[in-house]
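Q: How do we represent a protein-ligand complex in a form that can be generated token by token?
A: Start from the inputs.
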Amino acid sequence: MASNGAYNAFEMARAQFDHIADLIGLDEGARAFLRTPQREFHFTIPVHMDDGTVQVFQGFRCQHNDARGPSKGGIRFHPQETIDTVRALSMWMTWKCAVVDIPLGGGKGGVICDPHNLSMREQEQICRGFARQLARNIGPVLDVPAPDVMTNAQHMLWMMDEFEEIQGGHFPGVITGKPVGMGGSLGRTEATGYGVVYTIREALKELNIRPNDTVAGVQGFGNVAQYAIELYTQMGGKVISVSCWDQKDQCAYVFRKMDGIDLPQLQSITDRFGGIDQAKAKDLGYEVLPGDVWIDQDVDILIPSALENSITAENVEKISKRVKIIAEGANGPTTPDADKVIHERGIHVIPDFLANAGGVTCSYFEQVQSNMNYFWEKDEVLGKLDVKMTAAYSAVSELARKQNMYMRDAAYVVSINRVAEACRQRGWI
Ligand code: NAD
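Then emit the structure tokens for the protein with nicotinamide-adenine-dinucleotide bound:
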């Protein structure tokens, strides 16, 4: 933990890695190699601002490990971006790509900036500057960026365009998260939420529970949450509560209907940031409750799909005795001390980097389609996604069962073993 009490993401990522390295008796050479990104780039991006001044932005890109294939991971635009956050996220991407067994390594990038205070032209200059600085170090066979916090399909297209200008050709496989029709993949919007539910379906089979007999509570109502709810209800499950952040009140609220929420109805009163209109929800018969009660609902499955550090030492005891599965749609929703309690209670956890790996898996599909310049139908994309997610879940749960191991540990063991083995086979370690 940092001196101000906040978690340093890179220290946390390393502590998780060290714990698993101890568990599997990883040799010293492999530990030393995998604890640190293979490469990191620090660079400046000068921008001629709209007011005539020049402002210099700081950019980073980390390639944690590319033994299994080109590095893959998003680019964040954030005023509080730090190199340690980027390092940690790149390491987590290595494990995420490995657990779902796609031939990619882990990378991540960031620029210290706040898009809220930048015009579109200024943002375009940052994107082009980012691509110029990294033109020799990214590419379809090197490192493939994607959108992340406060970056979107437009940013990706500007970066791709600048890269192609420099390289002199079309290389849509250099970046993912592009719009459909410009090299993007069908199914990407649904991929993360659907992927979460493919793993829930497999967990229910393993626990011998019929989806129709289950009730779920969801934290969040954004991209991941909405598509998870769509597929879970199609499968026969019932969602009784969702939550969202209220921009005006600067706090979260839970929206609950005991006989099951109506997804299209709630979507019709939700803004593009996943915020639900309270007054309209009340008119439609929803109870509007304080945001922190999402965790103590009387449900079988909890799906935290909002943001990190949502399940903490302070609220973990509130999880209902009925909860059998926690499927982590969000990244890092559970703090390490809360995780200990969940482990002791024997709740079946589908850890974040397994549960939400549908996003990166579909990005991999986008890259494959872009490299071929041939695009699949949506059903084909989602069918392939299901196969990958199901296989990933099985590999982890089988290890957990055989070795009587916690699901989160088992997922790390699968990933770290795969990456270490690739490094060994290449003769690196
Ligand atoms: P989003 O911005 O579309 O939605 C976030 C939702 O969470 C919104 O409904 C927002 O109102 C709600 N929220 C924010 N703060 C909250 C709070 N304190 N309490 C309750 N609700 C709150 O984001 P998303 O794309 O759905 O991503 C959600 C999580 O999933 C993030 O952790 C993200 O990193 C992770 N994730 C997303 C993807 C993806 O493909 N979208 C892939 C992997 C992981």
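Residues 378-402 form the longest helix (25 residues). Residues 192, 219-225, 243-245, 252, 274-275, 291, 305-307, 329-331, 356, 359 surround nicotinamide-adenine-dinucleotide (CB under 6 Å).
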